Amino acid sequence: xxxxxxxxxxxxxxxxxxxxxxxxxxxxxxxxxxxxxxxxxxxxxxxxxxxxxxxxxxxxxxxxxxxxxxxxxxxxxxxxxxxxxxxxxxxxxxxxxxxxxxxxxxxxxxxxxxxxxxxxxxxxxxxxxxxxxxxxxxxxxxxxxxxxxxxxxxxxxxxxxxxxxxxxxxxxxxxxxxxxxxxxxxxxxxxxxxxxxxxxxxxxxxxxxxxxxxxxxxxxxxxxxxxxxxxxxxxxxxxxxxxxxxxxxxxxxxxxx
Length: 257
Hints:
Blueprint: H1 18-28, H2 38-53, H3 62-75, H4 93-104, H5 111-131, H6 141-168, H7 174-181, H8 185-201, H9 204-207, E1 209-212, E2 218-222, H10 223-239, H11 242-256
Antiparallel strand pairs: 1-2
Helix pairs in contact: 2-3, 4-5, 5-6, 5-8, 6-8, 8-10
């Protein structure tokens, strides 16, 4: 794939097309950046600073600049300038989240296993939300804890309640109950993830978030931008678990026929 002319803090792929946005997302969650050494990270940061200051060494290609920006954005928080802990980076979503998905989809879950895996999942989600939060406005720890406990409580309540209803639905065939049970994790996870996101970030609706110009400079705060960002993030958190929690049960049911 060709590399376009480098633009600082811009996406390498066109954001006006679905394919461009898809490639951009795949670039963000690329797990290979998890293995980046500190030396490589510092080299990438230095290269981007040289580009910003107009002191770029001769012979540096667009490919090298895009690779450097990919590494920095995958590891360094854009607001705090600090490294994001590896399990909570977007590039760690697949490798660290996959074992949790397996636990959520285990057949014939007990009450204890249901609560355990929902708790683990929401704990991971909460830390991902917090680690990748908009830090231009500081979030109190109490708000983080409120979102966390609300998410864990709602996830466990929905999952346990649906499993209990299925066990009492004696008029349904055993095979039907087993099939429906496989889809229980999704509404629990989707609802809890949305609650987690909204409760942790609702303060942005009153305080606003920083708005940047095309050069990355802050031009003020905006409550309208905060509302739009929160709605988009909450919707993403609701839809994001769908493929991994709905497609496997469908495929398993089809293969068992």
